[in-house]
Amino acid sequence: MSGFTSPVLIYSLVAPILIVLGGAVIGVLVEAFASRKIRPILQLSLTVGTLVLALAQLWRVRHETSGGAAMGSVAIDGAGILMQAAILFMAILGVFLIADQENFTVLAAAVPGSDEEAHSIKSGEQLTEIYPLTLFAVAGMMLFPISTDLITLFVALEMLSLPLYLMAGLSRRRRLMSQEAALKYFLLGAFSSAFFLFGAAYLYGFSGTVSLSGIGAAVSASTGNTVFMLIGIAFLSVGLLFKVGAVPFHAWTPDVYQGAPTPVTAFMAAATKVAAFGALLRIFYVGFANAYWDWRPFITVIAIITMLFGSFVAIAQRDIKRMLAYSSIAHAGFLLSGVLALNKAGLDASIFYLIAYGVATLGAFGVVTLVRDSAGEVTDLNRWAGLGKRSPFVATVFATFLLGFAGIPLTSGFIGKFSIFSAAYESGNKAVVIVGVLSSAIAAYFYIRVIVLMFFTDPVEDGTSVIIPSVLTRISIVTAFALTIFLGVFPTPLLNFISSTAILLR
Amino acid sequence: MTSNYLVYLIALPLFGSALLLFAGRKADKWGHLLGTAMSGGAFIIGLYEFSQMLGRSTDQRAVTQKLFSWISVGSFQVDAGLMLDQLSICFVLLITGVGTLIHIYSIAYMSHDLDRRRFFAYLNLFIAAMLLLVLGDSYLNLYVGWEGVGLASYLLIGFWNQKPTYATAAKKAFVANRVGDMGLSLAIMISFATLGTVSFSGVKEHASQASTGALTAIGIMLLVAATGKSAQFPLQAWLGDAMAGPTPVSALIHAATMVTAGVYLITRSNFIFDAAPTAQLCVAIIGAITLLFGAIIGTAKDDIKKALAASTMSQIGYMVLGAGLGPAGYAFAIMHLLTHGFFKAGMFLGAGSVMHGMDDEVNMRRYGGLSKFMPITFATFGLGYLAIIGVPPFAGFYSKDKIIEVAFNAGGIKGITLGCAALLGAAITAFYMTRVVILTFAGSKRWNEKAHPHESPALMWIPMALLAVGSVASGFIFTHGNSLKNWLAPVVEQSPAHEGELLKPAVVSVLALVLVLLGVGLAVVKYMRKEIPLVAPTDVSIFTRVARRDLLQDDFNEAVFMKTGQKITSALLVTDKSIIDGAVRGVAKLVRGSGSALRTTQTGFVRSYAMWILIGAIGLVAAIWVVTL
After folding, report:
1. Are residues B500 and B568 in the same domain?
2. Which residues contact B303 (CB under 8 A, 6 or more apart)?
3. Which residue does chain B place closest to A310, by CA atoms?
4. Which residues of B touch A235 (CB under 8 A)?
5. What is the ipTM of this complex?
6. Is residue B194 situated within a structural domain?
7. Taking 60 as the threshold, does the pLDDT of residue B436 lie above it?
8. Residue span of the structural domain in which B398 resides
């Protein structure tokens, strides 16, 4: 037996993640022991407090750069801290939406339609396991973009995915659909995780190491079996591309977005994208940079079909949540062009885009939770007709998010698209830019169609109405709205901040 | 030099406007007071800056304030910055000073209006936008203010938009202004394309390197902008209809300040026009045409506000003419602008006061003999009248005579033509203004039954009286020791020494006075001696008829632009429907079709999704294999 060296952790640097995990564990205890009356408020304040505390700790270490925070398994660097902060910020906004317990099933373990369910609804025993689940997922998401070896990456991937599978199944209304979505998400997630592991094994076989920098060194030295390397890159990409929802690994997205409770969809769509793209950027920028000419062709093709597929199919959607799901697929394609750029501008632009897109997505799904009839949320697009006449403010806010998605100037989306496409153009990848701009034009069609529907179509009287949102929901939506406009009008502070901060430790 | 207070000039009224608009009905009780206070506060800051400026040496007087970096795209850098120099301080004091007086006047004038708060919100918005216009340190910043005053003007013309004609008037002003605004945006674009900058200092610095052609293009485009905003030929048609707005608006926006923005723009851009003689000549010609055009329309109007509007158009024509005469004329254009700000605003407020007493009647044929009933209004209006027709020692005498003189001295046929036009304009001005005064204040009573003329409350006559003081004294103050000319000298190029004067100043003054007296006399003979019919006689000469129809400006626009426009639109519509729509629909159908077709891949079965993932993964490996083969 060789000597055992005890692992050295620099606690202050990994503290943000540890704080979130600690909060989650306490949340489990609260769920088990706190009385029913105070549980919701206790859980909510615990969760928000934990997230804020983690954000504060992140702020304290914002200037640190270290590769050895956890025995070389994670890298603390500017880009990582930025993405962790973005995830925490979106998680806070997401938790504000989740706080509206109206959306969640009372007793997730009960079989839909069973006596047990009816009984628990009657007695009003609302369970609040969603909060610790959210925190676990957030911890995984925070770990994902800073992981620097394949094992930690995989652990983080599972850590963020497993709670999300459960959360997707917690919808109060249309429970069967929600559970179906959760199961689909789980099965397909497991399938793609297998690909990820398979790819990791090949990469280990190629380089003899699991660390990204080691793989990067092996790639540039081109020692070892390059077939192993290429298969490794391809399969590892499948696992990651699944998480970001790139075609043809996207198929879960619409079903899960539609089936999951809308606040969960909001959180998932925004924060998971940041985490997954964070990891993707690190892997490709640090690990595979020297194999650029090997992976560039197929990632280009995937980016192109993802943009086109998302935009085309979104047009045919009749359900607002499915439409937003396809829009998120299209945006995954736009973001891939930032990965493809493989330059500093691409990294900066991707981070800006992720923030802009995530914030607008949270806001948009937040608005979706407000439009209801007696049976719950109304997601049929035709019934959104005339919303602008009934609730001009809510409709204006939603229209702003849509304009942001479409990339209309004076919204954050425009700056995001502009910077990401110019970074891709700089790198010489004209095909991606041309297709990107074209599919943006196609995508604008279905965003604007919703605006036309809301403002220029007469309302149908079918009981659809906009509920008065709770204070927290309101904060969440208004913050997202304000940021979408602010980042569109004054993008310079954030752009400068990102470009001066975002570095990837190699 | 920098100053930290410039931004508050704009921020105060902007804050007032936002607060009044967002507070809603809650602010009805105190909204007008807040609005007035904000405008007054801006005036005080303006006075402070002015006193500071006076204390500094000539080359240190201009101050700047950088707010934030506004646009930073590649080589295109624009800071949102403010600049207060000798030229803009004149405007700042005029806008906030006259603006505050008109705010005070409006408290009483609009007291019966349910929407008085909204009115003050728009007035404050206007003040803020106009201050931004004159304080911006680049063409782009100016453009923001330029659009802002256009918006405020639109909102205020259509303030009583329950009357469709008023709403139409607002729309007409808006459309005419858009044409001009296009000129401004083109000028900015050409400036950036050729000079690489849009800031005043940058353009001034680089102007010498640009070709005359480019500078002429910029100049012409700036002129187009000026004609739109300042109601100059050929974009003048909107101003008469703009009188649909409440009278204080007509006084502030459509007489004293906004409509003079074009003169500001041309004077500010003196470095462009001085280097582009063709553009400069165009400016002078446009000014001369408009000053006659407006004067002729003024002779035929029975509506007191429209007569004053025509007069405004004509007086701005003088200013544009002055500005078009180059270094010799800039200072006098600005001087006339300032004196006009006093006397025309005063007369408009007088007209408002008359309307106030006459049950909102605007037809002068329904007035008559009001001098006894409204002595203060008569006195203040009368002083404004003496100023505008140019009787010494009132303000207009100094400023207008100077422009006429400079025009004559411009040299050659150009000088004689422009000078004669300006002289003729002075005579016609005397005629139509005398007509207005006689019809309103002299002669027999021709009132409606509902009219019960009375003097207006103090809140209304005090602003009028203060403006009247300006009408009397401002001209003397500005010319005394060439004060205004020397003051503006660092901003606009100094005129070269007088060489080859065609006419001595004294000769011009005498000539002008004689013509003015002729005009006054003719009006007295025509309107004092005879009974004024209540309805405008129809058996009049073709000239009168044409003048009554605003020299056919609307007929011309309708026949040339509207009809052709409609024809082009309908032709385009057919093309659009058959060819373009066909193509678009085809593409859309294709897109939607492929969307629906692709949608069928979404079967809902996990097994088929998993199959896609598998196919994708195998495809990736295959692709890599093919690429690296």
Report:
1. no
2. B243, B362, B363, B364
3. B595
4. 617, 620-621
5. 0.88
6. no
7. yes
8. 277-537
